[in-house]
UniProtKB/TrEMBL annotation:
GO biological-process terms attached to the record: positive regulation of sporulation resulting in formation of a cellular spore
Source organism per UniProt: Pullulanibacillus camelliae
Name of protein: KinB-signaling pathway activation protein
Transmembrane segments: 9-30, 42-73, 85-104, 116-134, 146-165, 171-189
Species classification: Bacteria, Bacillati, Bacillota, Bacilli, Bacillales
Keyword Transmembrane helix (UniProt): yes
Length: 199
């Protein structure tokens, strides 16, 4: 892929992250934002929007770092295991471990007698999204792309999300998580199209 296309992907993902972060931030903080406007804190309202916009861009950069990290890891792992099937088994194992840890560690830290159902929702939703993106990737490329796409969308997104996963759910939990998911999905589905254009 040429430098020009890489820069284009970087800038588009950055802008996407800013916009998604802003939209999700407004949605999850709607009540407090509206309350601030009613109290006449207009400058504070716009400063808060700007901060969320910038944070969305930051999350998109984290997403891009994770994406290129995985592309490198994928090539190294294929060289070590010398087989897509063996590397695929390892990835499935890591997906299962990540899924269990996502639920168990957060419940252990924050559950305190609460129902585990609430702690199931984020990993289950993320896994369903990962399955959908992996299926689209497979249909647009080939069947061996399924497991890598699923692994990236679930495991790498979870690792990128760790800074807020260590905290109790709040508005930033959703802003960061959904921004990462959208940016990761965009990059995963855009890469093979860019590579086709280069050929």
């Amino acid at each position: 892929m040429s430098i020009r296309k890489w820069v284009s992907l970087f800038l588009k993902t950055l802008l996407l992250g800013c916009v998604v972060g802003l939209v999700i931030g407004i949605i999850v903080q709607w009540h407090s934002q509206l309350h601030g406007l009613r109290d006449g804190h207009i400058s504070g309202f716009f400063i808060n929007l700007f901060v969320i916009f910038v944070l969305g861009g930051l999350f998109s950069v984290i997403s891009q770092m994770g994406f290129f990290f995985y592309l490198t890891l994928h090539r190294i792992a294929l060289g070590i295991f010398r087989s897509h099937s063996r590397w695929g088994i390892v990835q499935w194992f890591l997906i299962v471990v990540t899924f269990v840890d996502f639920i168990y560690l957060r419940y252990k830290a924050f559950g305190h007698g609460e129902s585990v159902i609430g702690y199931l929702i984020p990993p289950v939703v993320l896994f369903i999204i990962a399955l959908v993106i992996a299926e689209v990737k497979k249909r647009e490329t080939n069947k061996i792309a399924y497991i890598p796409a699923l692994f990236f969308m679930f495991v790498v997104t979870t690792l990128e999300w760790l800074p807020v996963l260590r905290q109790k759910e709040n508005s930033m939990f959703w802003v960061m998580g959904l921004t990462l998911v959208v940016c990761n999905a965009y990059q995963m589905l855009k890469l093979h199209r860019l590579l086709k254009e280069t050929q």
